[in-house]
Specification:
The chain has 84 residues and is mostly helical. It has one domain. Helix content is 71%, strand content 0%. α2 (30-58) packs across α3. The longest helix has 29 residues, at 30-58. It is elongated and about 55 Å long. The two termini are 16 Å apart.
Length: 84
């Protein structure tokens, strides 16, 4: 995997908070913390998108759907998202 360097500007006070979090959470450096935070945010965005898609699809069903069927469809959607 090729990595690309980016520039990130943070004010001094916020950077101090980042440095404290690096130490207290056991990260090796700022980059590791920032990568983890970005991955978590991307996962949150994917989850929200999947939830919206499921909510949209739920209303299109022509037959009654049980909670178990809804949960199975939800799990399948998440599995498909993880494959991407």
């Amino acid at each position: 995997m090729v990595t690309e360097m980016i520039t990130l500007k943070l004010d001094d006070q916020f950077l101090e908070e980042v440095d404290k979090a690096v130490k207290s959470a056991g990260y090796h450096n700022r980059t590791e913390l920032i990568r983890t935070a970005l991955r978590e945010k991307l996962d949150e965005i994917k989850l929200n998108k999947a939830m919206l898609e499921l909510a949209h699809l739920k209303g299109k069903a022509k037959k009654k759907i049980s909670s178990e069927m809804y949960e199975a469809a939800r799990n399948k959607a998440f599995e498909e998202l993880e494959k991407r």
